[in-house]
Amino acid sequence: MSGVFVWNDPVAGYPQTADGQALFIHDLVAWGKSEGVLSGIRPWAPDLAVPGWAPMALFQRNGKQATARPALDAFASR
């Protein structure tokens, strides 16, 4: 995305890729569980990886179909 947006800045150690997103979610859930401070995560839209929003989407669009990205598995891994 172009422009100055807080959510646009990469976090050190977590590349803005599908695998980086999954690692971030995994680590966030692990931290929240270990600290007892996380009761849930409510992802904010968009749900589909459309231009500019791909690093934050939980689904990849392939034509008329959408497939889950690795981050969804990261929620269940903890």
List keywords for this structure.
2 helices, 78 residues, alpha+beta
Share of helix, binned: 25-40%
Mean pLDDT: 83
Distance, first to last CA? 31 Å
Radius of gyration: 13 Å
Query: Which structural class best describes the helix and strand composition?
Result: alpha+beta
- Largest sheet, spatial ordering of strands: 1-2
Secondary-structure element pattern, one letter each? HEEH
What best-fitting shape do the alpha-carbon axes yield?
globular
What is the makeup of the main sheet? Answer: 2 strands, antiparallel
Count of strand segments: 2
Unreliable stretches: none
Give the count of helical stretches: 2
What is the beta-strand fraction? 5-15%
